[in-house]
Amino acid sequence: YTVNIVATNRVIPGTAGAGGIVMVEIVFRPPAAILYVAIGVFAIGLLSTLIKKGEWPRKIIALVIVVVVAGALVIVLYRPTTLSVDEQGVRLSGPNGVDLSWSDVENAYLEANLPASPYRPTLRTRGVALGDYRSGRFVLSNGDPARVMMERSDQAVILVTDELTYLFAPLEIDALVAAVNQFYTRPAPSGS
Questions:
Q1: What gap in Å lies between CA 158 and CA 111, rounded to an integer?
Q2: Is the pLDDT of residue 121 over 90?
Q3: CA 152 to CA 188: how far, in whole Å?
């Protein structure tokens, strides 16, 4: 069957496949705090522009700048990201998307106690971190760089490649674990 996990956090069964899961899609929604910040920037800019003394053409230019900045915040930071897992690999859509083939993955596993593990994100180098939501590039507690997409902080699926570690922690972790277990085959050790 196909598992498609949508924003309502419901699992929607689809067509039957011979091997079980055909594909898993998980949508990561940014926290509402990002939207509130953009609305706050717009409101403060609007009020300061209207209260400020001056000529209307200058006020209109300032208002346009405020609208553009607030709009850019919403467009860049409040975009949902979709994680797709299928027989080809893992794809992360949205800003700074990822297209990771299973042949590039050296190891994949579930980290059941993320806060106490060496894979806990500790330093954000590029991205967003609000509460349990994390998206972007981080340094892990073991010092390795990682691409992180999290909605929870207790457990995560870890995919290790030559270049980077990928950490995915959706609310719907069970569906992601099932898909990784079905599609990922650990490579044979070298020399065997």
A1: 7
A2: yes
A3: 32
Rounded distance between C-alpha atoms, residue 105 and residue 114, angstroms = 20
Q: What is the DSSP letter of 116?
A: G
Question: What is the C-alpha separation between 26 and 76, in angstroms, rounded?
Answer: 20
Whether 124 and 21 have beta carbons less than 8 Å apart is answered as: no
Whole-number pLDDT of residue 17: 40
Q: Kindly provide the residue ranges of all beta strands, DSSP E only, lying in 77-164, ordered along the sequence.
A: 81-86, 89-92, 98-101, 107-111, 121-130, 133-140, 145-150, 156-160
Beta-strand relationship, 121-130 and 23-28: unpaired
Question: Taking Cα atoms as reference points, which of 189, 104, 136 lies closest to residue 28?
Answer: 136
Would you call 19 helix, strand, or coil by DSSP?
A: coil
151 phi/psi in degrees, rounded to 5: -125, -5
Taking Cα atoms as reference points, which of 180, 176, 171 lies closest to residue 28? 171
β-strands 3-5, 23-28 pairing:
parallel
The predicted structure's pLDDT at residue 93: 86
